[in-house]
Design brief:
- This protein is mostly helical and 116 residues long.
- The chain has a single domain, classed as uncharacterized protein sp1917 domain (Helicase, Ruva Protein, domain 3), CATH 1.10.8.
- It contains 6 helices and 2 strands.
- The chain has a two-stranded antiparallel ribbon with strand order 1-2.
- Helix 1 runs parallel beside helix 5 and helix 2 packs antiparallel against helix 5.
- The termini are far apart.
Length: 116
């Protein structure tokens, strides 16, 4: 995939506000976004805030995640023109899983469907 090499170095603290804007434009809440992030990573809200305050990149963010949800492999679909289940790099796949969940939330899917 093109430009994959940049994804691990992207700052979670810079992407998080973009996620908030995306979901809020579609009448979803930051709390729902945090619930999605917690479901995927195992981070609490406090730990998400700490990741933001420490200005960690996605590589560190996912390395420090308590536990990737066992159902994360059920996340399927296309993000940025690529099927998430076909991404070979494990870190890039995790970031794209998060992107896909945020997209589903913003598109109005019910939370129980987003959180498989």
């Amino acid at each position: 995939m093109k430009n994959d090499y940049r994804i691990p170095a992207m700052k979670f603290s810079l992407v998080y506000p973009l996620y908030i804007n995306k979901v809020e434009r579609k009448n979803r809440t930051q709390e729902e976004l945090d619930q999605v992030i917690s479901w995927l990573t195992g981070f609490t809200k406090l730990e998400i805030d700490q990741q933001i305050n420490k200005d960690h990149d996605f590589e560190t963010f996912f390395a420090q995640a308590p536990k990737l949800h066992p159902n994360s492999a059920l996340i399927k679909g296309v993000i940025c023109g690529v099927r998430v289940e076909d991404i070979e790099d494990p870190l890039v796949q995790k970031v794209r899983y998060l992107d896909k969940l945020v997209d589903e939330l913003a598109k109005g899917k019910k939370m129980e469907k987003v959180l498989r």
